[in-house]
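Can't paste images in this forum, so I'm doing it all in text. The chain is below; anyone willing to post the predicted structure tokens underneath?
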Amino acid sequence: MSTETLVATGNKAHSHGPGSPVPLQARSERPTSYDVDVFPVPNGREEEWRFTPVKALKALFEDAEGTETPKIDATGPERVEIETVVADALKVLTPQDRPSAIAWKRSASALAVRIPNEAELTEPVHVNVASLGGRGFTHLIVEAGRHSRGLVIIDHTGAGELSGNVEIKVGDGAELRVVSIQQGDHESIHLAQHDSVVGRDAKLKHVVVTLGGKVVRINANVRYAGPGGDAEFLGVYFAESGQHHEHRLFVDHEATNCKSNVLYKGALAGDDARSVWIGDVLIRAAAEGTDTFELNRNLVLTEGARADSVPNLEIETGEIEGAGHASATGRFDDEQLFYLQARGIPEDAARRLVVAGFFNDIIGKIGVPEVVDHLHEVIEAKLARTAQLSESAKAALGQ
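Text version of the structure:
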């Protein structure tokens, strides 16, 4: 069974039904390869690129050496192993598009973060990735050994054009949280593929927070190496005027009795603010006992912003615990605003409280107070700019 649901706001609806020039394609049928030539330069009409501003990504489609070497380093507790290794040391990831294949080819080495077997980290590992203004490539490996417990935070900053790959391996019985934060400069571009493999009875929590960047496109994929695996994929994004935030997921259920839960929430404000969320879940014939659900919610704060949301579910066996998806895009809940204003809270403050609550259930799961506080500050600053936009619009209309 294959389904597609599309939610679009901004007075420009899409149609991809019979007779559409863009054919629907099963997620598992798309090519993967380490060979760049397998992937032609996108023109924007391909299924996997139809929402993306491909003209802005021209430099990252070029199969050429980078113009800079991005700075990438890591710090963590004493037991964690941090070293530079050859790029193909793990090979959990196989590129799914041209930028990922180029990044694989042009990254001579990878930074590896390894949590030893049975280690229980009491402090997070911090990975800092800084693009210095040119075009560059990165490769990061994160491994959690058997029955280990740990948290890895990846912080992306800078002003350049960055294409990177992240490989994540969660050993049998391990529990790993990976938090990837995108807060590059307003003109930066960041393309990335994150591939994870979850071992037997292992748990992965993968969190993506996208707040900065002109164009950000993150492909996050997970598969299971044994039964009993549990993967939770969470995301928060806030796109302002001129920003394009795109998140794509592929959950590949191929082992028995595994779970997955996907929850992404986004807010948009300002002219040409754009978000795209694509959630693909495949339950293969052998994956009996699967339990999966995915949800995307978008909050449109001003006129001129647009959110596209496409959940897809393919099921090849009926012997499952449950499978579902949902998507919702809308404006402020007037009842919530009325409730708060009736208790003496000014309208602008009430709106900020609603948005903060909208995001809080995801940001709160990061579990690192200083990171959570910083993200709340960034979101608060974005909301303040949104309030200024609203006041300017009212003034222009003479209200």
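Residues 333-399 form one domain. The radius of gyration is 21 Å.
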